[in-house]
Amino acid sequence: MKKENIPNALTLIRVVMIPIFIAILSLSHSYLGHIVAAVIFAIASITDYLDGFLARKWNVVSNFGKFADPMADKLLVMSAFIMMIELKMVPAWIAAVIICRELAVTGLRLLLVETGGTVLAAAMPGKIKTFSQMFAIIFLLCHWTLPGQVLLYIALIFTIYSGYDYFKGSSYLFKDTFK
């Protein structure tokens, strides 16, 4: 495989891991099943970091990667939160806030590209949001409840703040909406 294809392959691996993660959480309601799911989620999360790092390092950023990488991240995180509601590990209202923000920012990104070709890059609050979400999920699946819940609430705060920050920075798109 050519090195320029490796970041996209890592993104696709992450997408393929999502149904495996869901199946393990659906079929195994044991502590060991949760640990296995946490390991799969952690590996998928590492591919998120690795694909972006390699794409930038090798200067092989592609349109597919710009679209698929954030989509894969959102699918992975949203799937985990939905599954964890059923397991009573995450309150539904927190998952709803996080999922709504993810969908709203994805829509904003699409609108920005459509109206001017601008790509909304991840800012530091968004990166903190992603990091804290992923670690909260891993810790909660490992039944490390206190650090998992602390990270979950940190993720919630950064989810709200980063969403606000993205929309504030793009408010010019909506200036004529309510005239």
From TrEMBL:
Keywords: Cell membrane, Lipid biosynthesis, Lipid metabolism, Membrane, Phospholipid biosynthesis, Phospholipid metabolism, Transferase, Transmembrane, Transmembrane helix. GO terms for biological process: phosphatidylglycerol biosynthetic process. One of its GO terms (cellular component) is plasma membrane. It is found in: Cell membrane. It catalyses: a CDP-1,2-diacyl-sn-glycerol + sn-glycerol 3-phosphate = a 1,2-diacyl-sn-glycero-3-phospho-(1'-sn-glycero-3'-phosphate) + CMP + H(+). Pfam families: CDP-OH_P_transf. Its EC number is 2.7.8.5. Coiled coil: none annotated. Its main location: membrane. InterPro entries: CDP-alcohol_PTase-I, CDP-OH_P_trans, CDP-OH_PTrfase_TM_dom, CDP_ALCOHOL_P_TRANSF_CS, Phosphatidylglycerol_P_synth. Gene3D superfamilies: 1.20.120.1760. PROSITE patterns: CDP_ALCOHOL_P_TRANSF. It comes from the Bacteria. The keyword Ribonucleoprotein does not apply. Pathway: Lipid metabolism; Phospholipid metabolism; phosphatidylglycerol biosynthesis; phosphatidylglycerol from CDP-diacylglycerol: step 1/2. It is a multi-pass membrane protein. This protein catalyzes the committed step to the synthesis of the acidic phospholipids. Belongs to the CDP-alcohol phosphatidyltransferase class-I family. This is CDP-diacylglycerol--glycerol-3-phosphate 3-phosphatidyltransferase. It comes from Streptococcus parasanguinis CC87K.
